């Protein structure tokens, strides 16, 4: 009886502390470095700490950057550039082990790494590399069995939102049929290894490409319910996009794979809706909803893990003018608009 009494009195306390420490999905930021005017990585670490930013996505394995993060406690997504994938895919497992040791683990401890992002936006957008994605992931996965025996580091590959051939209504979403043979084994791997599906999602682009059909308020979390889908109601494009990916996976037979948004953001200049007030509105809502674990209509209460794009404007990016104006901070470390991270 005594034991039972202890059990009943302790259990709610444990439960309480568990829920209070795991609620609030923390916000990550992408540290893109296609620029010639950025502060040195050590200054960037101070900037992150003073703003309470605890998670960062890196697009490559620049040793100076990785070394600067080592021991800071900041958690990382580390990107394997697309061009490396054939080498990893075609080599033996021990080639992947060596690559991981030389390029990542020599510079930063395993317990700071959340995910290794294997390639970026390869499916449909950089299709030469498509056949190398899963073989590279499998070799890295085998290599991590010895380098990260607890299996904490998850492997995945970030996708462009355009890999959906249909996204409306969200429940009818489907991957581009052309991707079937690459997507199914990838989903199987993500499911079996409990790794997330990664997507780069930009409601800004959806609105800019189609302002007649998509309202600005719907993209900026400032709308009444716009879309009825089965029993679910959508009042913003971000939720509809995430749930479209959840449904596309379910429609292929894979339920329960988490979605991590490896990029989303809003530019502050470059024409049209690219304005600081819209960027503040969009990113501010993304942060609030993550911190409060709002989730989406299909997964209510499950905060979406998001990496905002990006820390700094990147003045050497090609393409449309707004591509060079996604930065939340100026190169001097001053915020372009008053975004709060916590
Ligand atoms: C890698 O593994 C292969 C096959 O097991 C072996 O023949 C080779 O010697 C290994 N290479 C190195 C550098 O350890
Ligand atoms: C957007 O929302 C605001 C109120 O928040 C409203 O005044 C405005 O008319 C809306 N715009 C459109 C195009 O519906």
TrEMBL record:
The lineage of its organism: Eukaryota, Viridiplantae, Streptophyta, Embryophyta, Tracheophyta. Residues 1-24 form the signal peptide. The keyword Secreted does not apply. Belongs to the glycosyl hydrolase 17 family. This is Glucan endo-1,3-beta-D-glucosidase. One of its GO terms (biological process) is carbohydrate metabolic process. Pfam families: Glyco_hydro_17. One of its GO terms (molecular function) is hydrolase activity, hydrolyzing O-glycosyl compounds. Keywords: Glycosidase, Hydrolase, Signal. It comes from Tetracentron sinense.
